[in-house]
Amino acid sequence: MYSAYFGKVTEAIVHFAGLFATADEEARLKQAYDEFRATHKADDKQPEHSTYTIKIDASHQFEDFDPYVPYKPLKPGIEMATVLPYVHLAPQDIPIPDGPLLSPPDHNFPHAFIPGWSISHEVDVHLPELDPPGSVAIFINQEIRLSDNDYVSVGGSGLKFTPPPVDDSQMEALHQAAANINPIDDLTLPGTPQEMAQFVTTAVARLESFSADGHGDADIFTTKGTTIEGTYLNGKLIDEADTPKMEDYVDYLKDKDTTVEGPNGPLNMSVAPDSSDFMHGWGVGTTSPSVNISTGDNTVINSAVVVNDWASASVMAVIGDHISVNAIVQINATSDIDSIGAAISGWPFDPGQTADQSFNIAMFKHIDPTADQAPAEAAPDFPSYYVVTQITGDLIMMNWINQFSFVTDNDVVLAASSGVQTYVSTGDNTGFNAVDLTELGHNYDLIIIGGNVYDASIIQQFNLLIDNDTIGAVSGFETTGQGSVSTAGNLTWNQASIITVGTGQYQALPDAYKQANDDLSAGKKDLPDSILQDPAFAGSGLLRVLYISGDIYNLQYLNQATIMGDSDQIALAMNKIAPDPNADWTIATGGNQLVNHATIVDVDGANKIYVGGDHYSDEILIQANLVSSAPDMGAQNPDILVNEAVAFLTDSTGDTGSAPHVNDHITPQPADSASADVMQHMLG
Fold first, then answer.
1. Contact 506/370 with Cβ under 8 angstroms?
2. Segment 588-620, tens digit of pLDDT
3. How many whole angstroms separate alpha carbon 612 and alpha carbon 493?
4. DSSP result, 598-611
5. Distant-in-sequence, close-in-space partners of 476: CB < 8 Å, separation ≥ 6
6. What is the DSSP letter of 510?
């Protein structure tokens, strides 16, 4: 009862308090409003705002909505060949106990020497075990297969251009010549450790016996040695600062100018042309007639970078043989033999055209990871503890990368001027293969290998370009306008770098390391005392040891090849109904760019390599340029070839013969325009 009563009282009080607060707020607001009204009436009247009449002239008509949104993807980046400014081998961090942990002798645990104790006071210290590295084998195969063989007929000539297919015999001949230069081009992917060992030994034997003689007119440079240091450009040793920069030569890496001259100013051809800019004045006879033909400008880039830091040590003890080879093979093969008919032979070549350029750039560099370490002021201590981890069997570190590109852009163009500005572009294809691998594993102070070491870093780069163009004119073709021809400007570029971390000084295997291998293979994890006193381990508080009972296979293999055929056949004719001899002509058939870029960074880390068997270490560079000089068309006039491949079109029949002839009843096809490309797809 009292509860219900007090509840109602409380409700009434709260309700009253709320009403009181509301009334109080209204009074406050009323007072403020009265003051505002009084102040407003006391102010002088403000003048009225001035108004002006604005005349709007919307004489422009809105165009239809165009939903086209051009897609411009970001350009893939290329990891350039850079030398690491500082390399530091960081072994695994193993905590050392504050004091010795005594235990009965047990060879299953690492053995240690305690500073200040005599030999009779040797104890076993229980230190944590290290995880051994596993094997890594990566096989990557990247291929680009593009066929862009276009047929284009513009200008209303009433003709059909049916030249014979491009002869591939010269491409096959150049390819065979390049294969004869490369001594290891036919080596295949090894599938077993035995095949990997055979691969390395075979490559070493072939590279060692290679001679630059006996390869015809090919320009070949080769150098061999235990080590090669520096950068070579087309067979000449240059300063690293003078190395040509890829971004200065490869248009794909620059902001490429995609504008052409239109009737109202430059037009950006990388985006969809706006109808008000592109169409106005085109096709209505209000501009100077011209024909612009571009059939080249294809770009293919292969880029691969591999950093192998999987298992390295400052000291390596090999019971068997140690075989090491670093090799770079670079070949550029080009055939750019153009046949230009007499009807246009007087046209000047494009003044902006550059000659064909070929670059073979190779760099070998060796980095000493201890070079930046300051010398010790006092005699350093030798390690007192060591930890041993083991791999039973072989350790494989293999990266096998193939990057192949096969591109054909053999275009057939029949062009005439119909009194307008005509722009034909049938090339400008782009292909890009890219691989970037960084493999980070474990670093040790000592690696003991019970078998052999097969260490190979090999880069093969090959570019083959066939750009034999034929440009001729049909009988009766003439022009009083300006004309220019550009058939060169091709670029073949090979750039490779092999960077080795570790000096790798070979020495005979001491007996202590042989004894350590025998003990470890028998299951004992004790190291002879003399190993801990090796000057290479001075200053190490804890020795991290990896024992491999089998072999080490360290194979880094990059193979890049681009084969491109861009042999265009262009026929120039006159409009059938209204011939216009006043047109300006611009023809460009070159400008192809074939680029291979590869880098291998192999972190061995070893400044001292003890070898119990035989050791072989060699570095080899082969650079070659092949330029074909055998004419493809012989001495026959391209104008004659063009006329032999031209036939008239009629409404009732297609091709009326292999050669043109006079027919008073010929009616040109009304739909004489660019036809679809029947090969515009990726080949499987």
1. no
2. 999 999 999 999 999 987 788 999 999 999 999
3. 43
4. EEEEEE---SEEEE
5. 573, 574
6. P
